[in-house]
Amino acid sequence: MHPTRIDLPEKNRRKLVDLLNARLADAIDLQLAAKHAHWNVKGPHFIALHELFDGLAGALAAPIDDLAERITTLGGTADGTLALVARRSALDPYPPEIVAGTDHVESLAAALAVLARGLRKAIGEAGKLGDEGTADLLTGVSREADKQLWLLEAHQQAAI
Ligand SMILES: [Fe+2]
Fold first, then answer.
1. What is the spatial distance between Cα 121 and Cα 118, in angstroms, rounded to a whole number?
2. pTM of full prediction above 0.90
3. What is the DSSP track for 113-135?
4. How many whole angstroms from 16 Cα to the centroid of ligand 1?
5. How close is the Cα of 95 to the center of ligand 1, in Å?
6. Residues 53, 37: contact at Cβ < 8 Å?
7. How far is the CA of 56 from the centre of ligand 1 (A)?
8. Mean pLDDT of the chain
9. pLDDT tens string 112-121
10. What is the C-alpha separation between 157 and 13, in angstroms, rounded?
């Protein structure tokens, strides 16, 4: 941990950094999966899903940067390499063989739900560690994750 004048005890900052790095890994993992789906989806709804999945990847860009920079603000190291993300992510490996739009919607929704659950849990944990700033950041990212989940699940909430 790097020294900082931020008035949170180092042991709290260390826990906050771990909390944030875990969700950062999930978010980067999901962003890569969304791009994979954007590139490889096929089927009758191709163009809508191709654009939807790119929108998900794009919507994650600012939250990823915000999570990473909160980590460094707190004196920690943002674990942004592929190897570190792979080790930390709570997401199941994205199925590489799927092609159909419905399968990509389901797989991305499942992954996004894991991220969203982790974010919601982390809000309370950050508050308990005395860091309402991080809790507020996580709240915003959580709200965006919920919205992105709606955009995916809307494809599943009525019959064709
Ligand atoms: Fe593209």
1. 5
2. yes
3. HHHHHHHHHHHHHHHHTT-HHHH
4. 34
5. 20
6. yes
7. 12
8. 97
9. 999 999 999 9
10. 41
Q: Which amino acid is at 58?
A: G
pLDDT tens digits, one per residue of 96-138: 999 999 999 999 999 999 999 999 999 999 999 999 999 999 9
* pLDDT at 159 > cutoff 90: no
Residues 6+ apart with CB under 8 A from 88: 21, 22, 24, 25, 79
| Ligand 1 center from residue 116 Cα (angstroms) | 25
What's CA 70's distance to the chain center, in Å? 15
| C-alpha–C-alpha distance, residues 58 and 117, integer Å | 20
DSSP SS3 for 160: coil
- Helices (H) and strands (E) in the chain — how many of each? 5, 0
For residues 145 and 99, give the distance between their C-alpha atoms in angstroms, rounded to a whole number. Answer: 24
